[in-house]
Structure formats: structure tokens, C-alpha cells
Amino acid sequence: MKISGKIYIGIIFAMLYIPILVIIFFSFNSSNSMAVFSGFSLKWYGELFKNDKAIDALVNSLMLAVSSSLIATVLGTAAAVGIYNIKSKRAKTAVMTVTNIPMMNPDIVTGVSIMLLFAFAATLLKLEIFGFFTMLIAHITFNLPYVILCVMPKLKQMDKNLPEAAMDLGCTPLQAFFKAEFFEILPGIATGMLMAFTLSLDDFVISYFAAGESFQTLPIYIYSMTKRRVLPDMNALFSVIFIVIFALLLIRNLMTKDSSNVKKAVNR
Amino acid sequence: MKTKKSLLQRYAASPYMVWSVLFVIAPLLFVIYYAFTDRNGTFSFNNFSRMFSGETPKVFVISLAFAFVSTLICLIIAYPLAYSMIKTKKKTQNMLIMLFMLPMWMNFVLRTYAISFLLEDRGLINQLFTSIGLGQIKLINTSGAVIFGMIYNFLPYMLLPIYSVMSKMDKSLIEASEDLGCNRLHTLTKVILPLSIPGIVSGITMVFVPSVSTFYISQKLGPSDFTLIGDEIETEIKSAAGSYNYGSAISFVLMILIFICLIVMNKFSDEDAQGGMLV
After folding, report:
1. Which of A29, A112, B58, B241 is the most buried (most CB within 10 A)?
2. CB-based contacts of B31: which residues, under 8 Å, 6+ apart?
3. Residue A115 domain-assigned?
């Protein structure tokens, strides 16, 4: 590669990482200055772990991400199987169009629309319903299309004779699904679930509209913190999140490398 | 046996269909309902007449312009970047793509915060400027900061689709064009560029849609009286003084605008894909 290409990659790389590295650097600052480094300390990390609101928000986020991705995976996998088996082409297109709506709509419109539904339900029932369950419904809703789009290609790749063979061997349709088809589409299901989990953990805009006062996720907590004057324990939180993501991506990279090595060995 | 199977499997999608009707279609109907009614629930066009007589059209134009500029700059930055990346070794490519994607996994609120930290009046860049005698320059709360924020946040969305199209490209096509006497520029414009159109189109949509509807970037990095269309929706829906009806009307118009953009973009990429196949 030409040297100019390398320099160019380096410049963009610096642009992306300088803001991140500056925050990580200043998270170890002993004073709360944003520009003068007055000495190394872990003070802000201590503050962070004493901050109940941040810990609560993290627990809420994880709870929501786990439950919404599990439910979306079950519903979405069933949906993919069902849509795959719809015979009428028109009906299939109609369902897929509806599936695409949450992906094409800007998040803010999805958020507003779901909020209006809940606001209407709340006035009808005269109840304060905004909280964990409204968030759960919102997250399942925006996760579902991604699960379906991850499972669908695996169904299309699957050998069509597989379920029939299973049934010829005496399986009921349900058994044929769980004993044969399920293992064929499992990689798609796993990718879909992982994607749903990360999307749910990362979402801010839709959650912001579907959330009530009582239930805060980490992105919403960060939003409310950074709107006002920011304390340096935010920098500590930022660094912790960055390191966790970095480690996870690195592990994933190493794992895919391993599995491709295994494949190579098998092919040999 | 066979009919039983198809029955069972057809029913598998029904929970999802019910879910979609309740939580995708019904909410959108609510947006339309609120957009076309007043506070008392009677049918009216008041929200729209208020929208087009007030400041909102200007805000729409500003939002579209900002999104357009930042999408364009993202494309200008990302295209040569993807091009330089496919020239490296496969191993380096995997590492590079992981490192470029890494910031994308951070929440965009955090990324925006990181930029504001750097651009702050008393932040690191201004300290540097002061120390070399340039004095303090206003960086944060400017339109430039908003554009930079959008580019910083959404650049990976442009890079990924372009890179994945380019890396799947048949290398022998490039060699063939060189053998047939094309120089580097011609190979780029006549072979690589047309083949990477699908990646460019999905990159543009993936940057344009979040840029045009953002509200946090403009609040955190823009001038104090600066509003984008996302800010206006957020204020109407979330603040006590706002009205759901007016907020819904703006959301409705935004949604229609974006759907039109997406349809136009898709037409564009379909035609090109067909053209590419004919070649």
C-alpha cells in the first residue's frame, strides 16, 4: 500500500480516538479540571462505584437488555419460521414491509409513536404505566426486526428436505422443528439475540420517550448527567464502558479467528 | 401430515403479527390521529397551518441542510478510507475494521460528550491554542461543532457498508481494467465506483436518517438558540408546555419526508444494480 493511504488511515483513526483517549486520560485526574492534569488518582472510580444512581441504571439496563432480547428472540424466531412458510407472495411482502417500518423510521418517530400509545392507554386506565414494562415493550418492538432478519437467511439456506426427512422418520412437525431445523438455524438465532442485546443496551432515543420517572437505563442516566455540569466520575464511567466493549470485541475477534482455523483444518 | 405442518408453521408468525399491529401500526396511527386533531380531540388541520406559518419550515430546511452536509463529508472521508483499507493485508483489514467500529459500540450520548469535553472553552484544544499564543477560539456551541459531532458519531455507519461492498469486489475486474489500458483514475471511476454504489447508497441512508432527526448533538454542541427538527419534536413531546398534537404533526411530516428520501435512494440503487449486472 502507498504511504499516503497509511497516513490517511492514521489521520481518521486519530480523529476518532483522540476524544476517547482524552476522556480516559482525564478520568485519572486528581482534580476535577478538564484541561489541567494535576496528578494521577483513582478517586473518580471510587466515586463512581459509590454512586448508587449509576449502579442502579446499569442494573436496569442489563435487566432490560436480557429480558427484551430473550423475548424478542423467541417471538422473532417463531415469526421468521411463520413468515418463511407463508405461501402467498402478497401476504409475505405485506408482513416484511411492516417488519421494515421500525428499521426505516427515524428513532425519534418510533419513540414518539410508542409514547403516544402508552400515554393514551394511561389516560384510559387512569394509571401511571410508564416504567419497566413500557420500556420492555418498546425494546422488544425495535429488536424484533433484527432477530427476524438474522434468522430468515438461515431458513432460506436450509435444505428443504430436512424437516420432511425428520417427519418420514416418525417425528411430529413440532419434533421435526426442535430436533432438526432448530439446529440448522441456531447460528442465526444466536446472532439475532446478540444483536438484540447490544441494541437494547445501546438505545437512547426510543428509551428516552418510553421511560417514566421511575425507571432509568444507563444511556438515559448519562444523558441527564451530561446535560448539566459534568462531574469527572462521568469520565470514569466512560472509561469503564470503553474498556468493557474493547475487551468483548477483542474476545469475539479471537474467537472467530479460532473457528475459522477449525474450519480450515476440517477442510484440509 | 403435510397440511398439519403448514398450519402449525403458519401460526408461528401470528404472535408477531399481533405484536406488530399493537406496537408498530397502532402507535403510527396514534401519530396520525394526534397530528390531525386539536387538544380536545376534534378533527382539524390547525397543527399543519401553524407549522407552515411559523418557524418550523425553516427548522426543517436547516435540519435537512445540516444532515446533507454531514452526510456528504462522511462520504468524502469514508470512501478513500475504505479504498485505502482494501489495499492492506487481510489481517490488518480485520484489525482496522474492528478499531473503526469500536467507537460505534459506545453510546452516541457518550461519544457526543467526549467531543464536547474536547471542544469546551476551557478544554484541551483551547488550552493548546492559548499556550501557542493563538488565544481562545470559540469551538463549542457553533454550527461547525454540530457538523463535526454528526460526522464523528455517524462516520462508521458510512464506512462499514462501503468497505464491505469493496472488500467483496472481484479483484480480477480491477486487474482486467488495468490490462485493458485504464490508468488508476479510470479504474476507480469506471470500475470500482459503479460497483460500490450499493454500499454508498446504504451508507448515505444510514448517516442521513439519524443526522436529520438528532436532538442531542444539537443541544450539546450547538449554539444556545439552535434547534433542529429533532429538538422541536423533543420539546413539544417532553416539556409540559408543549403539545402532543403539534409534536405529532412534525413527526408525521418528518416521517413522510424520510420515506420519500428512502424510496428515491432505493430506486437509485436498484437501477444501478441492474446496470451493473448488464455490464
Report:
1. A112
2. A109, A112, A113, A116, B248, B251, B252, B255
3. yes
Residue A133 pLDDT class (50, 70, 90 cuts): very high
pLDDT in tens, A86-119: 888 998 999 999 999 998 899 999 999 999 999 9
CATH number (domain holding residue A207): 1.10.3720.10
The reply to whether A214 falls in a domain is yes
* Average pLDDT of the segment spanning A243-258: 81
Kindly list the domain boundaries of chain B, sorted by start residue: 55-278
Q: What is the pLDDT of residue A1?
A: 53
Beta bridge partners of residue B37, listed in sequence order = B43
Q: Which residue of A has its CA nearest to B109?
A: A223
pLDDT tens digits along B7-37 = 667 688 999 999 999 999 999 999 999 999 9
pLDDT in tens, A149-202: 999 999 999 888 888 888 888 888 888 888 888 998 999 999 999 989 989 998
Provide φ and ψ at A242, rounded to 5°.
-60, -45
Domain that holds residue A209: 51-228
pTM for the full predicted model: 0.88
As assigned by CATH, the class of the B55-278 domain is mainly alpha
Q: Which of A247-256, B19-28, B97-106 has the lowest mean pLDDT?
A: A247-256
Q: Is the CB of A105 less than 8 angstroms away from the CB of B255? A: yes
Q: What is the DSSP letter of B37?
A: B
Q: Which three cell numbers stand for residue B50?
A: 401553524
A265 to chain B, minimum CA–CA distance in Å?
19
CB contact under 8 A, B15 and A17: no
Count: domains in chain A: 1
Q: Is A229 exposed, middle or buried (CB count within 10 Å of its CB: 0-12, 13-18, 19+)? A: exposed
In order, the DSSP letters of A13-75 are HHHHHHHHHHHHHHTTBSS--SS----B--HHHHHHHH-HHHHHHHHHHHHHHHHHHHHHHHH
